[in-house]
Amino acid sequence: MAREPRQRILPPPVCKAILLCEKVLRDEFTGLYSLVNIFDNIHLYSLPSMIGPYLLFLQVTDGLGRYRIAVEIHDLGSGSVLAREDQPEIELAARNVKWIGILGVPPFLIKEAGAYDILVLANGQEINRQKLTINQLAEHDDDYATRSGPA
Asked: Which of 10, 34, 49, 112 could serve as 65's disulfide partner, Cβ 3.0–4.6 Å?
């Protein structure tokens, strides 16, 4: 009796960098990246509020093959997935190849202050996450809001 061919399971890539930011610039001459307004917390006056879209700077390595990449936003308080956005597929030709991507974080609705995770998935498997803290400010906190992360 003939055996069915096994489906090859790809090793997940290893994430070396994951940062939320408002803008990414790439120097055409040097190929170097500049990340503008890196943040891991947001201060808001009123809730509920729409957040985003933002960018996610991602560097991965040690994978092999093609990967479907997705970004998900998880509410850690309720355990629910607030948003998901599929990204372009990537390919790592060898284990030592590095891939740098600028991914879109989809807009999502925040109903209450708290902790949220931005997850990056490769072929449905989590490869890393970045925690995002949402703080609600009182109206008299004007000075603090202007010195902190994006709103």
From this structure: 10
